[in-house]
């Protein structure tokens, strides 16, 4: 016991933790350097708070006098979100199935997974700019943008959910001589259907938010109205648009809760 507890056999905690300590020092130095390189300072932050208070003062009270413009933008954003969600979820079902490595051979699942990753690579605003340049301004660019964004996110979740299923049910259905479609319908879908509903409602909620964002670059919806109001320094109308966007998101949350209760 004395030999075990001797000073020669005691471990030096500094020698054990030198890598962690060095890592934290590097991180701290990099953060300090980043603050200096970007010109961040407390004075700039405090000045920004003063400008923000002036901006909020000009936004109150909100101006709803142009309610027809608000209503048309709201309806268009809602249409963009719903249409893109329907097509995006429908495509994601098939792509997620073909991307599942436990059901598909490698030569099928690998290219599909690469396609899904490609759809997820770029931010929706960047995709919206590309579609605006391709098909022009308006709702079509927004719909195509959110379809791509939906596929990039929800198809990956679909594939991962399918890969986690129990293959015993698949083998049982296959032993009856059932075809591929019957196997999917009666052994795969019952195991993942509730998760599919959860993913789909989340994507609808996400598309409701993004439908207002992509409009900033001309892809339809309330985003274009919001951007125009900012350019005109029409801040009371900006406040009205923001309130409408908040109401739209709350409606999406309400709709998602209803769908979850129906399919629970």
Automatic annotation (TrEMBL):
Assigned protein family: Belongs to the binding-protein-dependent transport system permease family.
SUPFAM superfamilies: MetI-like
Single Gene Ontology MF annotation: ABC-type phosphonate transporter activity
GO cellular component: plasma membrane
InterPro entries associated with the record: MetI-like, MetI-like_sf, PhnE/PtxC
Identification of the protein by name: Phosphonate transport system permease protein
The keyword Manganese belongs to this UniProt entry's keyword annotation: no
Gene3D superfamilies named in the record: MetI-like (1.10.3720.10)
UniProt keyword terms in alphabetical order: Cell membrane, Membrane, Transmembrane, Transmembrane helix, Transport
Domain ABC transmembrane type-1 positions: 74-256
Major subcellular site: membrane
Topology versus the membrane: Multi-pass membrane protein
């Amino acid at each position: 016991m004395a030999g075990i507890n001797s000073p020669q056999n005691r471990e030096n905690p500094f020698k054990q933790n030198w890598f962690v300590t060095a890592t934290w020092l590097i991180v701290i130095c990099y953060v300090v350097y980043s603050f200096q390189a970007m010109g961040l300072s407390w004075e700039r932050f405090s000045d920004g708070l003063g400008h923000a208070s002036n901006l909020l003062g000009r936004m109150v009270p909100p101006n709803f006098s142009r309610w027809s413009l608000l209503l048309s933008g709201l309806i268009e954003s809602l249409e963009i979100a719903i249409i893109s969600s329907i097509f995006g979820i429908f495509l994601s079902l098939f792509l997620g199935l073909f991307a599942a490595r436990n059901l598909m051979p490698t030569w099928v699942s690998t290219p599909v997974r690469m396609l899904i990753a490609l759809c997820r690579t770029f931010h929706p605003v960047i995709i919206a700019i590309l579609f605006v340049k391709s098909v022009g301004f308006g709702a079509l660019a927004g719909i195509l943008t959110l379809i791509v964004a939906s596929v990039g996110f929800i198809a990956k979740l679909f594939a991962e959910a399918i890969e986690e299923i129990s293959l015993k049910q698949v083998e049982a259905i296959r032993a009856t001589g059932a075809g591929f479609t019957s196997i999917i319908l009666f052994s795969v879908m019952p195991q993942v259907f509730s998760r599919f509903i959860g993913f789909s409602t989340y994507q609808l909620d996400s598309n409701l938010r993004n439908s207002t964002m992509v409009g900033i670059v001309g892809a339809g919806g309330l985003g274009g109205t919001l951007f125009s109001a900012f350019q005109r320094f029409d801040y009371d109308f900006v406040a009205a648009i923001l309130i409408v966007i908040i109401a739209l998101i709350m409606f999406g949350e309400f709709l998602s809760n209803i769908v979850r209760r129906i399919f629970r």
